[in-house]
Amino acid sequence: MSSTSKEPQLSEQELRITANQYGNELKAIASKIGELELQLDEHNLVIKTMSPMPEDRKCFRLINGVLVERTVREVLPALKTNKEGISKTIEQLTTQYRSKDKEFSEFQQKNHIRIASA
Predict the structure, then answer these.
(1) CB atoms within 10 A of CB 34
(2) Residues facing residue 68 across a β-bridge
(3) Is 33 helix (H, G, I), strand (E, B) or coil?
(4) How far apart are the first and last CA of the chain?
(5) Using CA atoms, how far apart are residues 54 and 72, in angstroms rounded to an integer?
(6) Least confident of 53-62, 70-79, 94-103, 104-113
(7) Which among 31, 38, 60, 101 has most CB atoms closer than 10 A?
(8) 24: closest CA among 99, 90, 104, 98?
(9) Is 115 within 8 Å of 19 (Cβ atoms)?
């Protein structure tokens, strides 16, 4: 073999499939980030609305499809905890997205691939 590269060359079809997989993974991650950002906005709105209310005021919370009666004192800390968890998840997904995008760019450069705009 006269080839100096240690990795086997991928066929055009394999390159196309791999590029599509990268694109689909990036779209899925971006979609999840968007979904979580909407949830984060909803949490922020509810926290902002509930914060000035008296702690013993009754409120309702939907938990696994069941509407339960609670007080602001019980619900507000849970909302803040959920909000922090959503924020951390968004950060992790953003890091994962950047990593996958960089990996895809390197794959494109290595295999001399250009994505045609539709």
Answers:
(1) 10
(2) 61
(3) helix
(4) 39
(5) 7
(6) 104-113
(7) 101
(8) 104
(9) yes
